[in-house]
Design goal:
about 450 residues; 3-stranded antiparallel sheet; about 5% strand; MetI-like fold; single chain; mainly alpha
Length: about 450
């Protein structure tokens, strides 16, 4: 009896050992799997954290580069927004002007228009620089003195006398601009009488003399915004280029936006799906990748040579930029139209609306925010283009401010390109200031488009 009980117990123990070992193995397996999962989760979280850190670094690095770029442009542009003027005592003597001193009224005004104001300017400024160190100015010294002042000085004193004919045969104080080399010399902060840049020692001494007499004054450079291009840096401004840009963008927006939206609506809502429309879609996508200079060649060969439109005109520039921006606007507009829920179309059709009513009363308003976004991208691209406009002649040196879309004009990107190639040091600041004006114009367009987009989104 005892032996049988013992045998049963031992057999039970023997039977229990494999199950215990099995459960131990299962526990070990589960523990190993848990550790692997935990390790995998740890690695995955580490990868996610590294990716987040990399993404944050990329954003901050890009933002830092933008800040550095804008800071560099702004620091270089600041000197262009102020300019140095000098006060001169101008003696409007009749014999210097080359007219009869006994004239008055209409006859005097008529004679003054053709008077010799250069002689008046020279004879008025030379005595100002005679002192103990220079008791007499040589011919070379006179040329050096005259170079201190802007070439526009004689026209400034002419306009002043024409505005006040009673100053004839009188000595009056008139402010004129200093030459660009002197202007840059003063902005660079050289010590009084110290030669530098393109100013020699004598000229630096004369400039210091004018400063001691408090004849030099720094003013806000209004002429930068009111004058057109000039070969003299102190006279150059952006008014002509800015006006040409606005006229060109007006033509571009007027043509590209309605044509692009109409093309996108037709292809997405009305056009049958066949090989012809597939070919059109492929060509539109390919046109978006064509280099911009090709559109300039197209404008030169077709718009100017075939149709005979004037060169360097905002009308031609607007047409060329329209051809370039149309693919971008059409592609973005089609994506916005396609994103409109089909339920809106079905509900309108179920209420008895026609296809045209559904498209223009329901689909187009819903897609307008995306369409405006695409238009912003296209217009921003056109605003900074230079290559196609160079091909149609908008690189010409144009002084007059355009008054219509068929007048000769240039645009801000081309103006920046021309100033960047100029050797005068003063054009560096003008160039940076023109870039700021272009960026400001782009910002205004973006803000306007954002306001319109938010308005349509609310509707």
């Amino acid at each position: 009896m005892t032996n049988s009980t013992t045998n049963n117990t031992s057999s039970t123990i023997k039977t229990a050992k494999p199950s215990t070992q099995k459960s131990t193995k299962v526990n070990n397996t589960m523990s190993s799997t848990t550790e692997k999962v935990a390790l995998s989760l740890k690695k995955r979280h580490q990868k996610e954290n590294r990716f987040k850190a990399f993404g944050l670094f990329s954003v901050l690095f890009g933002f830092m580069l933008v800040v550095i770029l804008l800071g560099d442009i702004t620091s270089k542009a600041l000197p262009a927004f102020h300019q140095h003027w000098v006060k001169l005592d101008i003696n409007y003597q009749g014999d210097w002007l080359g007219i009869d001193e006994r004239l008055s009224g209409y006859e005097l005004t008529k004679q003054l228009k053709g008077a010799n104001f250069r002689a008046v300017l020279k004879n008025s400024i030379y005595p100002m620089f005679v002192d103990e160190q220079t008791p007499k100015l040589s011919r070379r010294d006179k040329r050096a003195v005259f170079k201190l002042f802007s070439t526009n000085g004689e026209f400034t004193i002419r306009d002043a006398l024409l505005a006040s004919p009673e100053d004839f045969n009188q000595t009056v104080s008139i402010w004129i601009k200093l030459d660009d080399d002197v202007d840059v010399y003063l902005k660079e902060g050289f010590a009084l009488g110290e030669a530098g840049l393109r100013i020699n020692e004598k000229q630096a001494h004369w400039v210091a003399k004018l400063q001691r007499e408090q004849r030099i004054e720094s003013r806000f450079n209004v002429g930068f915004f009111t004058a057109s291009d000039s070969r003299e840096p102190e006279l150059a401004g952006v008014r002509g280029a800015l006006t040409g840009t606005l006229l060109t963008m007006f033509v571009t927006i007027l043509l590209s936006f309605p044509l692009g939206v109409a093309g996108a609506l037709y292809l997405e809502e009305f056009a049958p799906k066949n090989r012809i429309t597939d070919l059109i879609e492929i060509n539109i996508n390919n046109l978006a990748a064509v280099p911009s200079i090709v559109f300039g060649l197209l404008g030169l060969a077709v718009i100017i040579n075939v149709f005979g439109l004037p060169r360097s005109a905002p009308l031609v520039g607007g047409i060329v930029l329209t051809l370039m921006t149309l693919p971008t606007i059409i592609i973005a507009s089609r994506a916005a139209i396609k994103a409109v829920p089909p339920s809106i179309r079905e509900a309108a059709l179920g209420l008895g609306a026609s296809k045209m009513q559904v498209t223009f009363s329901h689909v187009l308003p819903q897609a307008m925010p995306g369409i405006i976004t695409g238009a912003i991208i296209g217009i921003a691209q056109a605003l900074g283009e230079t290559a196609p406009l160079l091909m149609i002649g908008m690189v010409a040196f144009i002084v007059d401010v355009p008054t219509s879309i068929v007048d000769s004009a240039t645009v801000l990107p081309v103006q920046i390109f021309l100033w960047a190639d100029s050797p005068e040091r003063a054009f560096l600041a003008k160039n940076s200031a023109a870039i700021l004006v272009l960026l400001t114009l782009l910002l205004v367009i973006n803000v306007t488009a954002t306001v319109l987009r938010s308005k349509f989104e609310k509707k």
